[in-house]
């Protein structure tokens, strides 16, 4: 229904590309994705290698600073994160203003944005040293804010971070410890959480990353830009998909529907198969492959039997042998198996997108920095106007 003559405007022809499927909005040296062949690399390193041997913190460093840290750089970065893990007492009071059933994504984006009020000195971030400190501040504090948004919803006292603990262990402590009884996760659980964050750490110009770059292009500060990224991530088609997957699997487990009936509803376009399909990956999502194995290994090691994993495996098998999905090249994406891992870590479903946001933070920060140091213009897409032509204004006393 687009009038082709309207594609021309004063400055030439406008590209009409709904969903920006074929628009390169920037150049970037952070993450490489080849969707046809299922390849993902952070700064040149294959995701499989990072997942096998790296940690989330090392990967965050790689994305933000461009190189894997040396041992001393890793220690310095860890020390910096520990230094930054507490929240200003003033910021702690912000939590009291939220209703206890407030969604943790709303709390996370609001409090991260508010962090900027406590650090007006970090508005410009022209020096690299300031940028490093601001990046560490956000990566460290986001986990405290996330855990406290959960505690607030549970009516539980806030647990302060423990500087002796590693990044992931500390997060689980703030989530699950109770006064006088520190939660002690197994090494396997800590490793699974680190892997979950690592696999979510960046994925080039997805909706939330593009939002961060869009907001940065106005020269907005880092806190405001990543807070906008959190909002963009929230929706069901992006960071909210992992919660959608678990809800779907639970419906099947609870007998509200069956795999066959659910697939039929999807094919009738009444709903989508959550955790399936991707704008870029058209053969497989390498992150889903890694998470599928990790979910399996974790359940096996813990002896915790989650029927949702069996349902997920069966559902994937049915869909991947159905022409509706194969013709459209729809395969499991990163969200299809991640919920199984989060459930095993006792993370409630409404926290799933928050977990995604913690993982994605290094990517957003790296993109903000890249964008702010490139001589890019303010991002400002055009549109094809489809409204009415000029009309004569009718004063109110002459209208019916
Ligand atoms: N279930 C059923 N059908 C689907 C699905 C799905 N999950 N995904 C796409 N399709 C169908 C569409 O209905 C469309 O069919 P049609 O040609 O008959 O109209 C076709 O496949 C193409 O779909 P688009 O929506 O054009 O694909 P797009 O690239 O815009 O969307 C997206 C990608 C949003 C990920 C989509 O596949 C989806 O909604 N998936 C489910 C939600 C999800 O898992 N999101 C997480 C994505 S990964 C991430 O954010 C980390």
TrEMBL record:
The keyword Ion transport does not apply. The active site is at 278, 335. Pathway: Carbohydrate metabolism; tricarboxylic acid cycle; isocitrate from oxaloacetate: step 1/2. GO terms for molecular function: citrate synthase activity. Keywords: Acyltransferase, Transferase, Tricarboxylic acid cycle. GO terms for cellular component: cytoplasm. It catalyses: oxaloacetate + acetyl-CoA + H2O = citrate + CoA + H(+). GO terms for biological process: tricarboxylic acid cycle. The keyword Zinc-finger does not apply. NCBIfam families: cit_synth_I, PRK05614.1. Belongs to the citrate synthase family. PANTHER family: CITRATE SYNTHASE. This is Citrate synthase. It comes from Pseudodesulfovibrio profundus.
């Amino acid at each position: 229904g687009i009038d082709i003559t309207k594609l021309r405007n004063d400055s030439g022809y406008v590209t009409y590309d709904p969903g920006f499927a074929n628009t390169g909005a920037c150049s970037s040296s952070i993450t490489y994705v080849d969707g046809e062949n299922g390849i993902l690399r952070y700064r040149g390193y294959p995701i499989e290698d990072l997942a096998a041997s790296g940690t989330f913190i090392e990967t965050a460093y790689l994305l933000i600073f461009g190189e894997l840290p040396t041992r001393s750089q890793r220690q310095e970065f860890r020390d910096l994160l520990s230094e930054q893990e507490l929240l200003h007492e003033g910021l702690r009071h912000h939590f009291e203003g939220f209703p206890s059933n407030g969604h943790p994504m709303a709390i996370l984006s609001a409090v991260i944005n508010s962090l900027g009020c406590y650090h007006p000195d970090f508005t410009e971030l022209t020096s690299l040293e300031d940028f490093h400190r601001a990046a560490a501040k956000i990566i460290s504090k986001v986990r405290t804010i996330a855990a406290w948004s959960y505690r607030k919803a549970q009516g539980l006292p806030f647990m302060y971070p423990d500087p002796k603990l590693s990044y992931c262990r500390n997060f689980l402590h703030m989530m699950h410890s109770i006064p006088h009884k520190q939660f002690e996760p197994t090494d396997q659980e800590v490793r699974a959480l680190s892997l979950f964050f690592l696999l979510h750490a960046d994925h080039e110009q997805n909706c939330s990353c593009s939002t961060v770059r869009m907001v940065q292009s106005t020269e907005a500060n880092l806190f405001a830009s990543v807070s906008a990224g959190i909002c963009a991530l929230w929706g069901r088609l992006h960071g909210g998909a992992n919660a959608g997957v678990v809800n779907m699997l639970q419906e099947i487990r609870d007998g509200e529907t069956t795999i066959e009936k659910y697939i039929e509803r999807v094919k009738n376009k009444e709903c989508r198969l959550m955790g399936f399909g991707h704008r870029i990956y058209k053969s497989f999502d390498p992150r889903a492959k890694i998470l599928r194995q990790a979910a399996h290994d974790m359940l096996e090691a813990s002896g915790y039997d989650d029927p949702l994993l069996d349902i997920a495996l069966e559902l994937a098998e049915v869909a991947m042998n159905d022409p509706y999905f194969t013709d459209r090249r729809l395969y499991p994406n990163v969200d299809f198996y991640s919920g199984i891992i989060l459930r095993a870590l006792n993370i409630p479903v409404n926290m799933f997108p928050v977990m995604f946001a913690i993982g994605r933070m290094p990517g957003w920060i790296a993109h903000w920095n890249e964008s702010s140091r490139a001589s890019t213009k303010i991002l400002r897409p055009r549109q094809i106007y489809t409204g009415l032509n000029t009309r004569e204004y009718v004063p109110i006393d002459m209208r019916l």
